[in-house]
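cache lookup: miss for this entity combination. No prior model stored, computing from scratch. Input as submitted by user K.M.:
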Amino acid sequence: MKKLNRRSFLKGGLAGGAAIAAVGTSKQALAGTHNFGGYPDSMGVLVDLTKCVGCRTCEAACNKEQNLPEPDKSFDDPSVFEERREGGLPRRTTEKAYTVVQKYDVPGREHPLFRKVQCNHCNEPACLTSCFVNAYKKTPEGAVIYDKTVCVGCRTCMVACPFYIPAYSYSSPTNPVIKKCIMCYDTRLKFGRPPACVEACPQEVMTFGKRKDLLKLAHQRISDKPDAYVDHVYGENEVGGTAWMYLSDVPFDKIGYDTHLGTQPIISYVKEFLGMVPMVLTIWPALFTGFHLLSNRKDAAKNEENKS
Amino acid sequence: MGGRKKTLLGMAALMLLTAPLAAQSWAAEGPGTVELGSLANYYSAVTFDHAMHTGVAASCAECHHHTTGLAPTDPNCARCHKAGDKANSVACKSCHSDKRFSAEDLAKIEGNPQLHHKGKLGLKGAYHQKCLGCHTAMGGPTGCQDCHTRNDKGDAIFHSGKYAPAPGASDGHGGGH
């Protein structure tokens, strides 16, 4: 029998490593050409920022539908638009507000531009990828929901989200959990109804429908009125596509949208590494235990012989 | 004899020429005021002064598109409705659905691949985009309560009026669950 020495063991290790690398590259090649792209009949919302008048009815409707706590200020108080947090940034989503409207004074634009912020419900959500207790789920209807009973409050999803959406119940000292928009999944979406904000909006800023239909509608709107919009549907391809998509008459980077997120889902940057984790944790111990046993079998047998 | 014929012909020509004018004067004879209340929930109904607005609008088509039989003002609409397509009813709600994103309405749109007006606004969106769009452009009133007063239910959802949060009541840590 061939003796397994240190050299042959290392050779074997190298061959194994090459095999892993080969699998890794083929996965990478796949990722470049093929994305999940979302469930085929998932729903979405097309937000036409040119129509928003900043009335905050969506915020009020969200507060009621989600049974959120009383707001600090009335929903008809426009002073919230001037509030600034660290870094001079406008309001963001919090545990008390799953959606907020921001105001942007754009030079050269006759009126301020209002932008509604909430979870974009990614096709391949980074929050879901990052969650180690699997609290998150992307439903076939299109919503990214989460199970707060399993959330351990680690806040990894807050770091992972490219849109800075998940908020945290810092007010709860005993059981702080993640809080975010669920597209009214529990009360509306799963019954085929639009989210509360969509239905409440007086201006029909938001169009609810199948994501694939909304994309056609978005491009039709741009081609019907090319002077009224920039030729970009934000969310069509960003981070692999999102259920909520936006039309604007102002370039998106001028109104707080991150235009450098790329078109790959966040998971594609980490899936090779994450794909190796189970292998390292399950196959490697068994493999190396096997190597160990093989290399020691002769010695063990010799020991037995010596004993007898 | 010949002279009389000529006169008749002339009268007919005159009538044909003035026909569009007659159509416009008919439009101005629309209702004086219209009560827009079918969607009223958080606000009172709007008492719309139709007579006043017909005096302000350049054409009925500004609001009624092609349905009064006049040429639409939007060049995109004119691609098909150039000559104006008179509809049986010119009421907004005859075309703009009051349950825009309901499963039935969405199924109706999806079930008709030939449908051009796939993104047609619902009734609430049509009212507000048309009214506010024009009011903004022409300097008309644009506040919510300039057109309809908010009711008690509306004050409650907006946490305003007697439902307003007490000043300083929240220190920003009022969340919890």
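stored under new cache key. Chain A touches chain B through 46 residues (CB under 8 Å).
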